[in-house]
Design goal:
The protein is mainly α and 194 residues long. Helix content is 61%, strand content 7%.
Length: 194
C-alpha cells in the first residue's frame, strides 16, 4: 500500500504540476495569440497604406501619360491676333495723323493771334569778344509737332517779324535744331523792336 500511496502521490503531484504547466503554457499561448493579432492588424493597416500609395502612383502615371492641356495658340489663332494687332496699329497711325492735323490747325489758328512779348532771357556767351547783340524784346513760342527752326522763322516773318533762323538759334543757346522738344518754349527775338 505504500507503493500505491507513493504512486498516487506521484500521480497527483504530476497531475498538479501538469495542470500548473498547462496554465502557464495557456498564458503564454494567450499572450502570443494577442501579439499575433496585433501584428496581423498592423500588417492589414500597412497593406491599406500600400494600396492607397499604389493608387496615387497610378493616378500620377495616368496624368503624366495624358497629353498636357494646350496652353499654346494655334497657327490660325496667331494669324487672327496678328491681323487684330495690324488693325489696331493702323487705327493708331490714323489717330496720330488726325492729332497732327489738329495740332497744325491749332498752330495756324494760334499763329494769327498777336504774339505775347516777354522779357529778354539772360544769355551768357563764353566768348568775351563776341559782339553779337540780342534784341531786348521778342516772343515766347511753344514748339509743336512738325516744327523746325526754319518753319518757325518763316511763320514769324509771315506775320511781319523779320527774324532769321540764325537769330532764333543765337537767342536760344543749347537749342538743338535737329531735335526740337514738343511743348518746350523758345524765345523768338524781334529785331525790329527796340
Amino acid at each position: 500500500m505504500r507503493k500505491i500511496s507513493l504512486w498516487l502521490f506521484i500521480l497527483t503531484f504530476t497531475v498538479c504540476a501538469a495542470r500548473g504547466q498547462d496554465a502557464a503554457t495557456q498564458q503564454q499561448i494567450d499572450k502570443l495569440y494577442g501579439q499575433i493579432q496585433d501584428l496581423t492588424e498592423a500588417q492589414a493597416a500597412q497593406n491599406k497604406k500600400l494600396e492607397a500609395l499604389d493608387k496615387s502612383i497610378g493616378e500620377l502615371r495616368e496624368k503624366l501619360n495624358q497629353p498636357a492641356a494646350s496652353d499654346s495658340a494655334s497657327t490660325e489663332e496667331l494669324k487672327k491676333l496678328a491681323a487684330q494687332v495690324q488693325e489696331i496699329d493702323k487705327k493708331r497711325q490714323d489717330d496720330n495723323k488726325q492729332v497732327l492735323k489738329a495740332i497744325e490747325q491749332i498752330s495756324k489758328a494760334g499763329g494769327n493771334s498777336t504774339p505775347v512779348h516777354r522779357a529778354t532771357p539772360t544769355v551768357s556767351t563764353n566768348d568775351p569778344d563776341s559782339t553779337a547783340t540780342i534784341p531786348q524784346k521778342g516772343y515766347e513760342y511753344p514748339i509743336v509737332a512738325g516744327d523746325t527752326v526754319s518753319s518757325i522763322a518763316k511763320a514769324y516773318r509771315a506775320q511781319g517779324v523779320k527774324v532769321t533762323t540764325e537769330q532764333i538759334l543765337k537767342a536760344n543757346p543749347g537749342l538743338n535744331p535737329n531735335s526740337l522738344i514738343v511743348g518746350k518754349k523758345i524765345f523768338i527775338p524781334d529785331p525790329n523792336a527796340k
